[in-house]
Description:
By secondary structure, the protein is α/β, with parallel strands linked by helices.
Amino acid sequence: MGLTHTSVVDAPLGEVFAWHGRRGAIVRLMPPWSPMRVERESGSLRDGQAVLRLPGGLRWEASHQPGDYDPPHEFADALTSLPLATVLPWRHTHRFASVDTRATRVTDVVDTPLPARMLRPMFVYRHRQLADDLAAHARSRVTCPEPLTIAVTGSSGVIGTALTALLSTGGHRVIRLVRRLPRNPRERYWRPEDPSEELLSGVDALIHLAGASIAGRFTPARKREIFDSRIVPTRRLAELAAVSAMGEGASLRAFVTASAIGIYGPDRGDEVLTETSDRGDGFLADVVTDWEDATIPATQAGIRTIQVRTGIVQTPRGGMLRLMHPLFESGLGGRLGQGQQWLAWIGLDDLLDVYLRAVTDPGLYGPVNAVAPAPVRNADYTATLARVLRRPAVLPVPAFGPRLLLGAEGAREIAEASQLVHPRRLIEAGHHFRSPELDGALRHVLGREIDAAPAIRMAASPE
């Protein structure tokens, strides 16, 4: 019972150990398919306590053990919350050893009655996350060797939560811009329509993610909410950034905003769409055009401005995959209509890497297509998801189905959209994609990896 899982990561011992002690590490290591959510991070690997939420109101309290704290070689935590600790003994020892000056052997030893086959997918995921995150930070330090102070709006969403954790584990100082009273020094109060003059004081880069979800029927009220939540707040932040750039001791060097591939319109056939393609038609194209135009004041002030045109993000914690995963897991999934629509997708972690590059690479600016280099048709997507889950996909969704849920306009712009988008700017910049192919991306986020990635050279103990 229990598990011993080992891999070698290409990073020095001190950096690997330090990564685990930074804010956001437990968030980055939490598998997206897990029902657990991080309620409170541990403040110390020596004697802190992390708290996780489980369904049914249960709490998993992981208490670090002072007697096993031996930096940079070892730390340990144990489950201490009742009633879980009485029925599920759990002790997790994290060990680190130098392979050479550039590589570290990471070993997780879990003492628990649970069998190894239940635990292995979690630790395959954790070790790959660790290796990939460390590699991403190493690449970013080539162009930005010093840590930044980065302000983030929309930090509590699926993307924002993961992104702030990635930035923090890289040693950057993250300031969350929140629309309630701040709870700690890492937060600042933000009024979207009238931001304070001091909001961006001491900030090196701003990442603006906030905006109402586009999911749902495109009623007049809903469309107004989608529009108003993006254009005015973005323009106000851009104007504030422009003013801040002219002040004494100005530090803001990058203004990064979320955007969307909806700018290309809902259906361009087999036309390959790059950052220089003409905008399309439809409601979302209108919104995204005005959204990107709202950043102009920052650009005119000489601030490097980037619009991240995001594709269909793959994570079971939100968006398309969150809806489709349970259907396909139950064997009830299938293609939409004839399944010929192009799907420009991107793995969540690859999207985070685009944002990391946007704030650290001075050579990246303007609109950037944040999509994987291998788009697929809807029929290929559903077949791949079914194969990863080992389920059939024989029940096609009739074309009228999405129209019943979203209305004619919403279905056309979202469910039926077909966009063959290519990440030309990223490819030209030599950008590294963690998951360039859909099969690998889905296996990683759903805990269905067949083998470990070669770069991490994993070896797990037998059951």
